[in-house]
Amino acid sequence: MKLIQVEAHGFKSFADKVCLKLDGGVCAIIGPNGSGKSNINDAIKWVLGESSSKALRGDNMQDVIFAGSKTEKEMDRAEVILTFDNRDHAVSVPHDFFTISRVIHRGKGENEYYINGEEASKKAIKEIAMESGISKSSLAIISQGTISDIAEATPERRREIFEEASGTSMYRSRKIEAQRKLEKTEEALSQITIVIDELEKQRKPLMRQAEKAKLYKEKIEQLKDVEVTLLVHDFMEYSNRLNVLNQDAREFEIVKEELTSKRQNYETSLMAKGTIINELEKEVEALSKDLNEIIDNITNLEIRSAKEEKHREMILSGEIKVSTKDQIDALKQSLSDLNDKISSYKKFIKDKEEEMEAINERTVKRSSRIAETKRNLSLEIDKLNKVKGKIDLIKEVRDNKATLAKGTKNIVENAELFRGYKALVSQLIQVEPTYARAIETILAGATQHIVVDNSETAVEAINFLKQNNGGRATFIPLNSIKAKFINEQHIVVAQTQKGFLGVASELVSVEKEYDVLKKFLLGNILICETIESANRLSKLLEKRYMVVTLDGDVIRVGGVMSGGQASQNVSTFGMDKQIEELEALIPALQENVLTLKQILGKLEHEQDTDITYSSNIALEKVTFKNKLDETIEEFDRYRQKFAQLSNETLELSESTDFVSAISKLMTEKSALLVKLNTQQDILKKAKDEFRDLTMNKSQTDIELNKWYEENQTKITEKAKAESIIENAKKRLSEQYGMLFETAKQFYNPEIDFSVARKLVNNLRQDIRELGHVNLDSIEQLETVEERYKTLKEQETEITSAKQTIEEAIDEMDKIIVQKITETVTLVNNEFKYVFSKMFGGGMAEIRYTEPENILESGIDVIAQPPGKAIKNLKLFSGGEKALIAISLLFSILKAKPLPLCILDEVEAALDEANVIRFAEFLQHLKADTQFVVITHRQGTMERVDKLYGATMQKRGVTTFFGVSLSEAKQLIDEQQKKQ
């Protein structure tokens, strides 16, 4: 393969397009310093892939573009094209002739590479260069500095020269690339191994968790089958019972209404009868009074008749004296006093009658108030009993749900045995009612986990359970757990979303020492208002976190969703709060009941007081009536005496017809006596009826109170039945997603319900003893298994690839050792000859620094010019170093000829005799190697096949032209004179 043409435009000083045609052999490029002749060397290196601007004598790669001069403006691009003759097919380009080119544009960092005008990669260009042996770092491009580097190179750097010569640099490059791939492969394998190990760690617990989850699901399904039947049974049984109780309640209302009406009728009748009795008593009293007056009148008439008779007799006999004035005056005074007394008694009796009338009116009104108060008291007692019944029912439901597992219960009951025992999770976390459903959903069985101070306490407790066959329990050692968090950036994102409420751990409260517990259980879980807002947030955060709604709907890591109708009483936290709220109502209800009882007692006391007072007034009235009667009788006696005294002076002819008057009074007496007896009989009957009414009213009160007591029991029973029915409906709806009508289809009336309830309790106990169950573990295990399988396959593939790379590296190492050994041997033999030829005798040798490790060994050169001792190259003079380095270069080219070698003033340090030897040796080597020599030495110019001169006819712009030797000498002399 030969370089037959170099074209450059815009590269460095080549503002005008340059085209050098090379015909093989030795071609020299000459020109004075500063003419730009070495830019041909830089151009060839640049096309071959040089990426160091320093190696191209610039500060940055943009410096290779023509920067302009006084006469020429700067250029926007630089391009260099090399044309090769590949008819010997030294490289694998499928053409007899091909070009490689490189272009750079000002202001753009990227370079463009082309092969035969088609865009190619830098790597493809470099592979052609390495394949041919003319890469930018090989012996194909040698400058004066490179010769110095060869002479002073370290053994390791010198080895690189031999690798270039042996053609192993390509293998070395490929080996380095393979080693990089091996490193990446090993890194990938290491990462996969780490992930596989991590998955192995996950698989084992996930397998256990998945088995536990499957068992949990089986138990839940069994529980569903049995419990649905029991819930339907409870619903139907208590619905029937509720119907009976409702019928009883209706009957009670009817009976209560009847008894209340009856009682009111009795009270009305009693009041009416009391009024009648009072009237009858008045009538009897009046009749008695009239009767007594008639009797008194009859008696008085009889006495008067007798006295009159006697008086007449005495008057007739002259025994009576008429003057009685003093006695009459005394009687007048007595009559006046008695009249005042009678008026006073009558007024007292009238006042008492008015007071009794007011009391009667008051008792009638109070009876209505008493009846109303009793009704209100009954209602308040109903409310109180319903609240108590609901509390009892909620406690019963809660205790049935939260009954501790056997193991947990044993630890709690023996907590004093463990100094590190703290409490259950449910006892340490306080939750607002708003978030109770969400937190309960998250924690699930974890509410029964036992919190202890450290793992030693947990071990002690577990051993205790084992030794006592005490069941199983789950422990959370505070010193072993770590808080879980959500990435702050993700929280910032979440806070921008509508419906986001916060991180679960921030929505509950604990004592300070349990802060790590709440963050361990809830720190990486988000709470949203609704399933819609939760779904949006989960998608936004790429399903990295569990998101739970206030209704207990869940979107798990990875996107699995679960949920349904919002629960109202499933939450343990919610039940406790509900009990707390209901219990808070009790004092007010009790206060209402107590107040109403006090009001009722006060009213009844006032009623009894009024009745007693009315009776006392009646007695006082009778007493004063008697006193009035006595006073009237006394008044009548005095009046009669007064009349008697007043009439003693009358004549006998004026005496009354006593017989007729007495006869008339006797008739009136008989009639009045009949009427009195009749009224007394009526009064007795009325009193008997009053007594019977009183007894009937008392009996009605007893019956009414009995009905009230019985009804209170039924109200409590009814409240319990309603709660059980409501709970059954909610459990069916919320836990199993069924309406009652749907659930009835699963009802089996033939089962033994007592056995079924035991089975439900056993299943619940089994489920509780399972502790916390990771329902996601089944899907997580499938995901992990799938990933594990994929990674194992990748591990196998990568391991195989690693083995292939290692085998390739081993093979390249063998090739490198073989080729470097072969090259060193050949070059060493040639070096001895060339050295002797160049120095006119002497001895030189190439040696390995590590003969036992040829793959990595450095290469040293030992030389002994004629008449001198053997010494290292660094100890020779500059000219000697250059000649030894050139000798080594020529030895390599003789042993391993290169298709092209560019020598840039490499002979500058040689004396004239050695320059001639140098030039003659080029002619000796040109049969196998094409040389492009950049020189200003005459000895070299005289012995080349073709000369190109470099000049700057326009300042800053290089121009090439073909010259003869004489023209070359003249050109150099003229340029030197100008300088």
TrEMBL record:
Localization, UniProt: Cytoplasm
Entry keywords, A to Z: ATP-binding, Coiled coil, Cytoplasm, DNA-binding, Nucleotide-binding
One GO MF term: ATP binding
Limits of the SMC hinge domain: 419-538
SUPFAM superfamilies: P-loop containing nucleoside triphosphate hydrolases, Smc hinge domain
Regions annotated as coiled coil: 182-362, 774-818
Any one annotated GO CC term: cytoplasm
InterPro entries per UniProt: P-loop_NTPase (IPR027417), RecF/RecN/SMC_N (IPR003395), SMC (IPR024704), SMC_hinge (IPR010935), SMC_hinge_sf (IPR036277), SMC_prok (IPR011890)
Domain of life per record: Bacteria
Protein residues bound to ATP: P32, N33, G34, S35, G36, K37, S38, N39
CDD domains documented for this protein: ABC_SMC_barmotin
GO term, biological process aspect, one: sister chromatid cohesion
Family named by the database record: Belongs to the SMC family.
Quaternary data: Homodimer.
Domain notes: Contains large globular domains required for ATP hydrolysis at each terminus and a third globular domain forming a flexible hinge near the middle of the molecule. These domains are separated by coiled-coil structures.
Function as written in the Swiss-Prot or TrEMBL entry: Required for chromosome condensation and partitioning.
HAMAP family, sorted: Smc_prok
Protein name (Swiss-Prot/TrEMBL): Chromosome partition protein Smc
Gene name, Swiss-Prot/TrEMBL: smc
